[in-house]
Amino acid sequence: MLLTLRVVLSPQNPGQFTGAGLLHGLKLVAVAIVAQAVWGMARTLCPDRTRASIAVTAALIVLFAISPLAQIAAIVLGGLAGLWLCRSVQTSDGEHITLPVSHRAGIVALALFLALLFGLPVLACHGAPEGVSLFDAFYRSGALVFGGGHVVLPLLHEAFVTSGWVSDDTFLAGYGAAQAVPGPLFTFAAYLGAVVGQSPHGVAGAAFGLFGIFLPGILVLIGALPFWDTFRSQRAVQATMRGVNAAVVAEISQKG
Questions:
Q1: 8 A C-beta contact, residue 136 and residue 215
Q2: What is the DSSP letter of 184?
Q3: Which of 127, 156, 171, 223 is the most core-located residue (most Cβ within 10 A)?
Q4: What pTM did the predictor assign?
Q5: In whole angstroms, what is the distance from residue 88 CA to residue 240 CA?
Q6: Number of H helices and number of E strands within the chain?
């Protein structure tokens, strides 16, 4: 924090704070915050040599691959490696959990999740209003993220900066500001919805962005609840998730 104060002092007017300097200082402090988060996740999710090796391999894939699908590929390969190598890890069996969501409601939620994930890009490419393209960008970012909140940053950057909707400087300034306020990093979507050049924007765009980025997680949660008690008891599933979590740690370290 002392570094932040030193950065934001204006050399022309000592004792005066500048907005640009403040944002630059917040970005510097955010580096330490992300590093601490990655270190904590690594100690929890990569406690042994096997999972550490999976994480290093995933990091190399993300670092050297040029395809935008490299992030998904690294997670899939991490899951396969966990299925193969992490079956011997012992875990305690949790108690039975009864959840108030029917199987029918879960299936409907999962079907809606997939319909939006694959249907919105099709509509956006066939003359739908520009709001559909904007909602698709938020929804896709929320649907494809796996792990900590910082994993969503490369997805949002690809959707908004690469497409030209938001400048790189505006994106980084908003990220720095998001680190200075409490709450999940997903709320960064509200900032992007407010400043994006597409319609809607402003307050309506902020609400639009929050709804779009949180909706897929809500649908997946509702869809998974009826099957979770059985799902989590399978040793193969547990091993796969260990590998996936290790790969996610690596992706956060590369992209965060």
A1: no
A2: -
A3: 156
A4: 0.65
A5: 12
A6: 11, 0
Q: Which two tokens stand for residue 121?
A: 């890009």
Per-residue pLDDT tens for 16-67? 445 566 656 666 665 666 666 666 666 676 778 888 888 888 878 777 777 6
Encode pLDDT of 93-138 as tens digits. 556 666 788 889 999 999 999 999 898 888 888 777 778 888 998 9
CA 11 to chain centre: 37
> What are the C-alpha distances in Å from 252 to residues 13, 164, 170, 178, 217?
39, 24, 22, 17, 19
Alpha-carbon dihedral sign for residues 53, 59, 64, 65: positive
Q: Are 250 and 64 in contact (CB under 8 A)?
A: no
Residue 193 tokens read as 């919805």
What is the amino acid identity at position 86? C
- What six digits make up the tokens of 213? 């980025």
Token code pair at residue 183: 């709450």
Q: What is the mean pLDDT of the chain?
A: 76
Q: Are the C-beta atoms of 66 and 90 separated by less than 8 Å?
A: no
13: CB partners within 8 A, 6+ apart = none
- Helix, strand or coil, per DSSP, at residue 232: coil
Would you say 16 and 9 are in contact if contact means Cβ atoms under 8 Å apart? Answer: yes
Question: Which residue type, as a one-letter code, is found at position 5?
Answer: L
Between 226 and 251, residue with greater pLDDT: 226
Written as six digits, the tokens of 248 are 């996610």
Q: What is the pLDDT of residues 159-182, one digit of tens each?
A: 888 888 888 888 887 877 777 777
* Stretch 212-230: mean pLDDT: 88
SS3 for 122?
helix
